[in-house]
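dude i think i finally got it to work??
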Amino acid sequence: MEIEEGVFCPQSQSDAVIWLHRRLSKIDPSDDTAANHIDLLPDNKEIDPLSQEQLGQLTKRLAGKVNEGCFLKFDIPWSPKGLDPDGISTHSKYLDELCAKTQKMIEEMVDKAITERQEEEVMTKSKSNIYLSTVHSLLTLTPLQQPF
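look at this
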């Protein structure tokens, strides 16, 4: 529901959404910790095909909605400990890269929003000044100068 409302609603702007897509490769569903990272069928150690199908559909929809510059994809090798930055160097590198790139994206989005807001305020103020100047000119015309 959160994704539906936040990403796919008509008012949503594709450049205001960041998608961090992490995929654990070579996950072992028989591992005791696998259920913490992937949907498994109840009472057995098999990957839930319906969940995988729904995840695939969501991935396709997101790919069509999120701007390429707002998308990060990470393929992380499976570890029975899940993310293990102390034991697996690629996990440590992933976390560093995730933090750095996400921070950069958010900073760029905030800077862009501030710039757009400032430009809107300048335009609004300019329009207001033109309006006030026009009204003032019309109100200060003498009866012989009035265009009506």
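Residues 89-140 form the longest helix (52 residues).
im so relieved honestly
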